[in-house]
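Input record (Table S2, row 632):
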Amino acid sequence: GFLENVLKHPTFYNGEATVKFIESHPELFEMPRFMNRATRLLNYLGEVAVNGNPNVKRIDPYVHFREPKIPASDRLASHPRGTKQILTEGGPEGLVKWVKDQKQILFTDTTFRDAHQSLLATRMRTLDILKVTDGFTKNHPEIFSLEMWGGATFDVSMRFLNENPWDRLKLIREAAPNTLTQMLLRGSNGVGYTAYPDNLIERFVEKTAEYGMDVFRIFDSLNWIENMKVSIKTVRERTNSVAEACICYTGDVLDANSKYNLQYYIDMAKALEDEGAHILCIKDMAGLLKPRAATKLITALKESVEMPIHLHTHDTSSMQATTYFHAIEAGVDIVDVAIASMSGLTSQPNFNSIVACLEGHERDPKINLSKLNEYSNYWEDVREYYYPFESGLKAGTAEVYDHEIPGGQYSNLRPQATALGLEHKFEEVKRNYAIVNKLFGDIVKVTPSSKVVGDMAIYMTSNNLTVEDIMTRGESLSFPESVVSLFRGDLGQTPGGFPQELSKIILKGKTAYTDRPNAHLEPVDFDKEFKQFQIDFDEYCDELDFLSYKLYPKVFRDFYEHWLTYGEVRHLPTKAFFYGLKENEEVFVQIGKGKHIIVKMLHKSEPDEDAIRKVYFDLNGQTRVIEVKDQN
Ligand code: 3PY
Ligand code: ZN
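Output record (zinc ion complex):
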């Protein structure tokens, strides 16, 4: 430890130590912290060696990992100019003007966020992203933005990856200084599943912008603009970033009987423009926008609003590249794609193939395809490390047009049903999902409203309930808490309101409210609560940790405790993080700028009478022993 270092130091030993001693020998402080960091990582590797990673439920001994090859780039060269410089120089208005002046189609790459959220349960680690961020943005400075934060990544990174989400933001920002960063923000629900106080949302937006966020894609899970206003206003008034406001696409705009008809979209687009949105996003979270519908919708929106239009979809039906071609020909400005090996099905359409097929088109983006393919190969090999989180979906489905389940939820729903013993009833869960949607009055379904519909569909399936059962004997049923909360008004209002008869049944005499959920929440007293926070945790926990804590108190606490014992596990290579080390396997771990450790696992002992195993490591040439209780 520290004292030992001091006592052994020759100056001290010879009796010459002064008050200045410690100040002039900072390495003595460095040393124990350095050792401590390494020890904590050994604690983690010891724990995984004995008990496994608690989130890896299924290990396939036959899976073979390949070493992902990082495409070549000039590490020392500076980044070519990109969209970030356009924003810095011209502000959001300058950027908007630039977008409108471009003839070629622009791309947002979702590989760092929605692609893995929709394919791999949001489990992509910062380390694997960072290995290619610098090179990718040097090789592809023409990309409009990188969607790399927000949505489910905020809580999943703490909950399952034991990583600080703010570190991810700062590190990607640093590695991509020429490209716009982009996040998904659920309006007044922030990056959570329920409404937060307005001043917490404001502070969250300000800090996120301050630490590197350029484009805020803001939506509401019921398309209720009231829930988006605070976010849009904060981005506009307190940051230099871009407010991109969404309309969540629902139903079929070709269906004249749907309440989500062309006029609905035009009205909402104009209303968002009036709120000050810089860019309009059509957020097709379930992949319902059919090719001919795209022509109709994009053409009408281009005529109705001045803002550039950004289209987001999921390829659940396998038809969405065609939708993009129609949208591109109708004048859409930007589309969302994922790198080939991380695209398709519940993820975004295939970036590489779309680039290839646009060759010679009047809106040809002229992107270096062979380089883009190298990145696809990198991600293909990285993806293998994440096999326990694959959804197992094999092909596109036309059923999505009936059930309208968002991409991210669709890949989760089967595992969720399986966990509840409903695997054999999965067809019924999907059917009930569509039935619940109708029952609730045909609502927008996206996080968190989609979760409520999913909860209700599972509840009906597991209890063998029909709509008639609910309408006739609903008084005696206890509905999922999320359903009661939706009908109370906690997620806001839906066009046309919730069906009244059902509302009475679900609320059982409680009254619903129709104003903003945030109006019912106590504002955060930042000065007072932050002081208490630092007392409860420690003085090194900063304002960003405080925001994590306010958004997810329990998740943050668990994450913090994990960190105390196991340290910065994000430094560990992904294979070691999920599967631990085999005997005599050695890993190189970069634990800071210019600092690394080399760890080899030597051996683990049999458990003793208290079920304790000793795990022997070689750490930079010295043998270290970690004791771990065997939980098996
Ligand atoms: C999220 O809110 O995380 C989404 O991806 C919604 O589509
Ligand atoms: Zn999405």
